[in-house]
TrEMBL record:
Its EC number is 4.1.1.104. Keywords: Carbohydrate metabolism, Lyase, Metal-binding, Zinc. It comes from the Bacteria. Its cofactor is Zn(2+). It catalyses: 3-dehydro-4-O-phospho-L-erythronate + H(+) = dihydroxyacetone phosphate + CO2; 3-dehydro-4-O-phospho-D-erythronate + H(+) = dihydroxyacetone phosphate + CO2. Belongs to the aldolase class II family. AraD/FucA subfamily. This is 3-oxo-tetronate 4-phosphate decarboxylase. Catalyzes the decarboxylation of 3-oxo-tetronate 4-phosphate to dihydroxyacetone phosphate (DHAP) and CO(2). The keyword Zinc applies. It comes from Aliirhizobium smilacinae. Pfam families: Aldolase_II. GO terms for biological process: pentose catabolic process.
Amino acid sequence: MSEDSLRSEIVKVGSLLYMRGLAHGSAGNLSVRLDDGSILVTPTNSSLGFLAPEQISKVSPAGTHIAGDPPSKEAFFHLAVYEERPTAKAIVHLHSTHAVAVSCLCHDNSADVLPPLTAYQVMRVGRLPLIPYYRPGDRKLADAVRGLAGEHKAMLLANHGPIVSGKSLQDAVHAYEELEETAKLFFLVGNRPVSLLTCEAITELNDVFPS
């Protein structure tokens, strides 16, 4: 897909996420990796619901702004994910309500903060580690992200929201939506007795549907 087509796709997807209530205000950002390693990323202080293709920022692998409006102040952690995940071609980072609520809880096991409720959660999201809190824009977050991105398609930033990567922008969006729906289920079931997927079921899913 050409760069112009990818810019248009980011605009289309951003509008869809905004209309679905998964993005609000100027929160959240999307990115796509180009063949030369540079990325297209949504601009800083912009609403995902009201973008134009020419506004989309282009940033080099080293973080240099090349074209478009100034990039999101969080473009650096997108680059950190891409460094560690060669197969990742796109990233979705939003502040959707239920996933952010999970990020605000205290968790006994920060290596995986959502129980295995559904098969599609395991297939599309996998284990969800919690990254400790850093203020938005803190470059130390890149190192924390880099330490987990190689082994995880999705990560949760404490008191902030998820970072989800995919083999395409559509793939990343589908995984993000599955994460948000799983977070809703997590709160709906609450403290009631729950039938979780077994270790055997999870292993079978990972074998049949490798990420």
